[in-house]
Amino acid sequence: MNGTVSTVLVTYPDEKTARTISRSLVEQRLAACSNIFAIGSIYRWDGDVVEDSEFASLLKIRSEDFHAVVEAIRQQHPYEVPCIVRYDVAEGTDDYLSWVVASTLPREGDVG
Fold this sequence. Notes:
This protein is α+β, with helices and mostly antiparallel strands. 31% of the residues lie in helices and 37% in strands. The protein has one domain (5-104): Alpha-Beta Plaits. It starts with a strand and ends in an 8-residue tail after the last helix.
């Protein structure tokens, strides 16, 4: 199971956007789940240092789906340069990692 599952960190301007995009990814079977949480961010943008409240999600995906996940996020995301970063899962319990894979496999008859 090792190496087939990744997590993806994504940041959003607000909770509604985080929930909308996360729900879409789970419905499309591109993510098994999404943990959504409020964050404070400090970053450089257009030459200025900005402090802002944002939301982030931690998506659980099959590693092979990363590019499809990026494309699906970009279609809905309002940021010009959204944070979309994939991390390999080095280890995890077999039952959990199996659940992630099973939750994201296309079902017979799925279009897409």
